[in-house]
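Board notes, transcribed. Complex of a protein with (6S)-5,6,7,8-tetrahydrofolate.
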Amino acid sequence: MKTILRGKANDVTIDTNGPVIIIGECINPTRRKKLVSTLREGNFEYVLELAQSQINAGADVLDVNVGIPGVDDVTLLPETVLAIRESYDIPLCLDSPNPRAIEAALKVAGGKCLINSVNGEEKSLKALLHLAKEYEAAIIGLTMDDDGITHNPEKRLGIAEKILERAVRVGIREEDVIIDPLAMAVSTDSKACMVTLETIRLVHQKLGINITMGASNISFGLPGREDLNSVFISLAINNGLTCPIANPEKITAAVRASDLVLGRDDFAVRFVEYFQSRM
Ligand code: THG
């Protein structure tokens, strides 16, 4: 199954057979003081620096999240998208809990974006599925619903099935639905990673569609985050993860290594290229 995303001209294919596509997470104000202060001033230079450094490090798609307390992202998200678009023709993943901000950004982005995110709540499905259809966007479906977050992988699969079914019903193609099995901090729940890994395996096996996750979430509150994230991402890729949201500066090596080990990188071309580009 192939999900195609597009900038203006440049497209990226996320293929369930790999290789893994990296969605760069760094345009996100969570614990990034400089991003918060520059965005508050309407200064996009630092956003563009983050775009460039992530592209250099191996990002294929950029997640754009400008959620700052007290700032209206219905205005700020499209402004940020436009600033990125002036310099970079990379597909974008529009990351906001606010459907109005998503719509405002879809209006200016062009190409084919990824909406981050829809979930199984009735309110979310109603607000976002028709937008995805209207703007020909792909969607990320989080495996949570009106009952909240379940720790049962079969139930998470059930929510994924429901989102897929509802999306197809409004005319979104199956390949334009990417499932997020929910990656959560393992410091507070020792089974959290296992639940995510099992959900990935089930979604991959039963639905055969592309799978993403916020890979860095698992290591919140722990030391050795890079090592932990790298191990987790390799296991997840082996189970069917195809397009993680992560920091490319820290994760691309593990992603290229995973593709190589899984027999998806003939003559180690991409693996070697990555390390040469870092010298
Ligand atoms: N699923 C989906 N979208 C998501 C998430 C998800 N979007 C947001 C988030 N989760 C993924 N993005 C991030 C961005 C940053 C960090 C983690 C996840 C992060 N930041 C560092 C920190 O908090 O310490 C600071 C920045 C740095 O130095 O790297 O960890 O789950 N669909």
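The chain has ten helices and nine strands. The chain has a mean pLDDT of 97.
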